[in-house]
Amino acid sequence: MNAMWLVLALAACGKSGRSAPPAGEVPVVSAALAPPGTPASVAVASPRITTLLERLHGTDPTARKQAISDLRVLGQDPTLTVDEGIQLLRATLASYPAPDEPFLDVPASIVLAVAARPRAAYTPVVDELFPRWAGRVRAQGLRLLAAIDDDHTAATFTRLLKPFALDPAMPSEDPMFLELERAPHHPALIVPALLQIADDPRWADAALLGVLAYCDKQLVTPDAFPGDPSGVLAAYAVQRSWLEPKQRPGGIGFDATDEYLHRREIASVTLDLMKCLPAPKVHDALVHALTYRDAHLAYFGVTSLLAHGEAVPAAAVERVAASPEMRGWLFRALTDHPELFPARYATQRAMAEAAMVSWLAYPTELGRPPDEIVLGKIVTKGPADFYVFKFRTLPPHWAAKDGWLAGIAGPYAHGGPLEIESPEGTFSSMKPYASATPEAHVGDVSKILEGWRKNRGPAAP
After folding, report:
1. pTM of this prediction?
2. Helix H segments across 308-347?
3. CB 389 within 8 A of CB 406
4. pLDDT of 451 over the 60 cut
């Protein structure tokens, strides 16, 4: 405890040897930049931080945007000292011009910049300022705490998380748990805290992804799972009751609305996470997941049951493998059980189709699998094969009006070994399939690839 207060005193006073300000005073950059009502006495300020903060207070939007950009660069600078980081954090209490865009919010940008080089000395400062912050600034403050692998910080993070999540005014879109996904730590403290907010629809996706990171790093296991796993089951039950009526025979097996895709993502995370929950508690839910027509959901039922060492019916594996969207995922997941993968889908044609659908499902393309996809022709160019597909979506998807469109998967080595990953030539210009011959479609993609290679320049030695 004494060491903590020593850190506080040094952080507040800088390296000048001056005494700490009286209790209750908040050191700021200068009286001119202090929020209303803040005492004028300040700790010694860094000139470069003071100058930057003055620019952040500027009224010219272009200049302020550049100052925010410079702030982000400074956050990555290894010469940024703890004292300077604390000076920046305290400056979040000042008033700044209203941002034109959310990412230009100065106080939130300050905390995010400081979080680029997280230090335990920031924890008591964040704890002190947190009640006076609002909205995105609080979210970034929690993100900063989540990045610090320290006992006191982990305890502070868990203490602040629940009241933050219960406040309906707090934003849920910020990637607060991204640092935990990258480097999970303190599972006994943080996992139960994340599970406490997992049954809230606003937080379910982010919180469960955070817990899943602990699972994937084997920091939680079925035999040693901290907290109450009923939160995971409750979050899944909410999504299951909504998703089940949306299952459809034929096609991709579901109504591909934006809400469906979002909800199935949450359900998929919970099903994936069940591999790290005690098997008796999740067995029934996982077995039921095998019955989904949506192969994305059934896939996680298969993999989590296998992770628990349980047998999976061949029919369930076959149905997942039959889905171009999940075929590649399943093949990779069954590396330790290759005998379970249906031989009829272990072909280059089937994997090319999977690569094509995976590319089309990306958010910047169709945003989901096409309703129908058919191989048009295999075009061989020299030593390589290109698989030319035609695909379409059904209303109300925006591409439905264009009918059958062309897509290319390749190049694959002609007569070579089975390739699972998507080659660089897997692409679609969303042109009608009938607008050109299969060879011409391949030619168009080849030109695009050549342009990319020229812009990319020579490969590094």
Report:
1. 0.80
2. 314-321, 324-333
3. yes
4. yes
